[in-house]
Amino acid sequence: AQSVTQLDSQVPVFEEAPVELRCNYSSSVSVYLFWYVQYPNQGLQLLLKYLSGSTLVESINGFEAEFNKSQTSFHLRKPSVHISDTAEYFCAVPEGGGADGLTFGKGTHLIIQP
Amino acid sequence: GAVVSQHPSRVICKSGTSVKIECRSLDFQATTMFWYRQFPKQSLMLMATSNEGSKATYEQGVEKDKFLINHASLTLSTLTVTSAHPEDSSFYICSARRPGTGVYEQYFGPGTRLTVT
Fold first, then answer.
1. Which residues of chain A neighbour B34 with C-beta distances below 8 Å?
2. CA pair distance A23, A57, nearest whole angstrom
3. Which of A74, A72, A91 is nearest to A27 (CA)?
4. Is B77 touching A (CB cutoff 8 A)?
5. Is the pLDDT of residue B13 over 90?
6. At residue A81, what are phi and psi to the nearest 5 degrees?
7. What's the pLDDT tens digit per position in B15-66?
8. What's the DSSP call for residue A98?
9. Contact yes or no for A44 and B43 at CB 8 A
10. How far is B82 from chain A, CA to nearest CA, in Å?
11. Which residues, 6+ apart, have CB-to-CB distance to A106 below 8 Å?
12. Residues with Cβ < 8 Å from A21, sequence gap 6 or more?
């Protein structure tokens, strides 16, 4: 089974500072990687995804993530965060084994401090 | 964007009773929906895959007789927790796959907080 590790349960960052949320995965099959964001009192939303091609993927709100096969990582970064980025961020991979669901990391709570 | 709703958002029930949670895709037809469970400070765990018109596929360790899933239409899947016990207290989240999007792309509902007393 595939798995995802998010080592940081909580990351406090000052507004306009850069941030990196870490995600490592284990997979023995083709790799598809996702970052989902959950704003307070809302459902999870797809932030960005890697399926193939360029290893650097970007979202519309300034986040980016880079697929690094040698380090089995898919870290999420943003050069300058805003208060509105306060949310829970989940890294995910397909379940594998023929299942269509996703396996999620434990999530990282990004806290933006003014 | 695609919208998925869940009802209720919160429910408190007594031990031994059954609770039904609804998951609806509001602006698209979903042939496949998923049910996840999330414990505090932990990740989402896939419970089952719900396919319209057929039986749900349950993940290993999930009791299908306890967590009844019905996907009777292309816009509605229900999860019924039967004979609920305090250990069933959790956050239940559904998601739906929208036709025409990637195989693994899912749209999530806001979740239902179940508390069993």
1. 100-102
2. 14
3. A72
4. no
5. yes
6. -90, 160
7. 999 999 999 999 989 889 999 998 877 788 999 998 888 889 999 999 999 9
8. T
9. no
10. 23
11. A6, A9, B41, B42, B43
12. A6, A8, A11, A75, A76, A77, A89, A91, A108, A110
Q: Which two tokens stand for residue B80?
A: 């019924």
Alpha-carbon gap, residue B85 to B79, rounded angstroms: 15
Backbone angles phi, psi at B88, to 5 degrees: -85, -10
All residue ranges of chain A with pLDDT < 50 are none
Name residue B81's amino acid: V
Please tell me what DSSP assigns to residue B97: P
What is the C-alpha to C-alpha distance for residues A91 and A102, in angstroms, rounded to an integer? 10
Please tell me the distance in Å from A32's CA to the nearest CA on chain B.
9
Is B71 within 8 Å of B91 (Cβ atoms)? no
Q: Is A56 near chain B, with CB under 8 Å?
A: no
Asked if A51 reaches chain B (Cβ–Cβ under 8 Å), the answer is: yes
